[in-house]
Q: What sequence folds into this?
């Protein structure tokens, strides 16, 4: 089963929904706002991907909190993502032991339509 994590009004998450809906692919959605993911989940994701990819440095939250000035290591980034899930790049998609981060239609096609 495809599980999409994110925030439903996020543009990239909306694009992922559109992709899966257009190809009639069933998925579940986990909303960070109504049910934040734990530090343990984020650590597991970091093992499947990497912290640099998972940590959203382009979002408003990152800039507002002025996190660039803290020069965070991976553990620091994980702690901040656990405190505020808006710092996680979206969408995060779990599928058959794989983790996809961000909206990438060509990557999606290769995995879900192959």
A:
């Amino acid at each position: 089963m495809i599980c999409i994590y994110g925030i439903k009004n996020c543009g990239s998450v909306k694009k992922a929904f559109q992709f899966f809906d257009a190809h009639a692919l069933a998925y579940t959605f986990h909303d960070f706002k109504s049910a934040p993911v734990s530090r343990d989940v984020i650590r597991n994701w970091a093992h499947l991907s990497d912290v640099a990819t998972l940590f959203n440095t382009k979002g408003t939250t990152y800039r507002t909190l002025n996190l660039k000035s803290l020069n965070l290591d991976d553990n620091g980034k994980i702690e901040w993502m656990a405190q505020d899930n808006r710092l996680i790049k979206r969408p995060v998609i779990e599928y058959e032991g794989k983790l996809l981060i961000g909206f990438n239609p060509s990557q999606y096609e290769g995995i879900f339509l192959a």
